[in-house]
């Protein structure tokens, strides 16, 4: 049996797809696994922020088209980059173990301290509002492109520092570029940051992904994504969500910026893992009601 794995053609995306492929081949050596890469619209347009060009869906629509057309059998994504609205014909059929979920500060090579006269580069409103609180008075400027492109802009002197996901840096073997890992209290991560998601066509036999799938991470992902979805959060919305599980109890912490007042709200909720989706919705509603009553 042959399985064609669809992926964006960036170095990080390929490494992530190969993580899935390696797991399949290790547990199912009889299967023939092939990588199929493609460049998405989101990879091609780098001079504007995602909210200006159509959102996170631009990173998946070409892969979705190929999957629906039968050109590939499964696709691999960074779960945090997937839009909240998904095609029911293309369900998420497996999620990975979670890599370090937090963000990292990256400085130019050889520097131990950030140059406050230069901007910090980041790619999301979520990071921006939290960086403004951590580094008051320092300019926060958008930066687009893959990790290597962003690092090149840092080294050229365009930025004094970058904020990147620890997970991507680790998967690329760039852990030595991390100057500081932000704590959960300092910077709440994006929903599903550090998690890989595998999509397939509805009804497809995906038993070959059984060893790759982590059920507990799927519960965490459902809680985080339901929180964001309830707040109608897209790539431009300053929203963060981070869940953990202990003793069959899920704790979800959320952050978002109320649109009219620009006030940043942060709260948490705990409940049974079986209520993961409802916990996310409940926390979102509670925070929205708090914003509206103040």
TrEMBL record:
Q: Write out the GO cellular component annotations.
A: cytoplasm
Q: Which cofactor does it need?
A: dipyrromethane
Keyword field contains Transferase: yes
Q: Which InterPro entries match?
A: HemC, Porphobilin_deaminase_cofac_BS, Porphobilin_deaminase_N, Porphobilinogen_deaminase_C, Porphobilinogen_deaminase_C_sf
Per UniProt, residues of the Porphobilinogen deaminase C-terminal domain are 222-288
Q: Which GO terms of type biological process are on file?
A: protoporphyrinogen IX biosynthetic process
Positions carrying S-(dipyrrolylmethanemethyl)cysteine:
235
Cite the Porphobilinogen deaminase N-terminal domain residue spans from the record: 3-203
Question: EC number(s) of the enzyme?
Answer: 2.5.1.61
Q: Which domain of life is it from?
A: Bacteria
Q: In which pathway does it act?
A: Porphyrin-containing compound metabolism; protoporphyrin-IX biosynthesis; coproporphyrinogen-III from 5-aminolevulinate: step 2/4
Secretion signal span: none
Question: What's the top EC group for this one?
Answer: transferase
Q: Name one GO molecular function term.
A: hydroxymethylbilane synthase activity
Q: Give the record's cofactor note, including how many are bound.
A: Binds 1 dipyrromethane group covalently.
Q: Which UniProt keywords apply?
A: Porphyrin biosynthesis, Transferase
Q: Which Pfam families match?
A: Porphobil_deam, Porphobil_deamC
Q: Which reaction does it catalyse?
A: 4 porphobilinogen + H2O = hydroxymethylbilane + 4 NH4(+)
The family line of this record is: Belongs to the HMBS family.
What does the record's miscellaneous section state? Answer: The porphobilinogen subunits are added to the dipyrromethane group.
Q: What does this protein do?
A: Tetrapolymerization of the monopyrrole PBG into the hydroxymethylbilane pre-uroporphyrinogen in several discrete steps.
Q: How does it assemble?
A: Monomer.
Name of this chain's protein: Porphobilinogen deaminase
């Amino acid at each position: 049996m042959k399985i064609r794995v669809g992926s964006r053609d960036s170095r990080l995306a390929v490494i992530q797809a190969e993580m899935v492929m390696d797991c399949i081949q290790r547990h199912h050596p009889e299967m023939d696994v092939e990588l199929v890469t493609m460049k998405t619209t989101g990879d091609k347009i780098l001079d504007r922020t995602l909210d200006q060009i159509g959102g996170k869906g631009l990173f998946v629509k070409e892969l979705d088209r190929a999957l629906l057309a039968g050109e590939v059998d499964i696709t691999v994504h960074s779960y945090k980059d997937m839009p909240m609205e998904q095609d029911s014909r293309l369900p998420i059929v497996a999620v990975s173990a979670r890599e370090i979920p937090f963000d990292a500060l990256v400085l130019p090579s050889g520097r131990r301290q950030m140059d406050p006269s230069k901007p910090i580069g980041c790619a999301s409103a979520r990071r921006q509002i939290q960086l403004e609180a951590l580094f008051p008075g320092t300019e926060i400027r958008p930066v687009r492109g893959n990790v290597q492109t962003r690092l090149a802009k840092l080294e050229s002197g365009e930025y004094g520092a970058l904020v990147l996901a620890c997970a991507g840096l680790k998967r690329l073997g760039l852990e030595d570029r991390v100057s500081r890992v932000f704590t959960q209290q300092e910077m709440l991560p994006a929903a599903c940051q550090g998690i890989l998601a595998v999509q397939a066509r509805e009804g497809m036999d995906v038993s070959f992904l059984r060893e790759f799938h982590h059920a507990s991470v799927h519960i965490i992902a459902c809680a985080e994504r339901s929180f964001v979805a309830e707040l109608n959060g897209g790539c431009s919305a300053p929203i963060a969500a981070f869940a953990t599980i202990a003793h069959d109890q899920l704790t979800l912490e959320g952050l978002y910026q109320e649109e009219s007042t620009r006030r940043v709200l942060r709260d948490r909720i705990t409940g049974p893992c079986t209520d993961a989706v409802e916990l996310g919705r409940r926390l979102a509603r509670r925070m929205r009601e708090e914003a509206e009553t103040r």
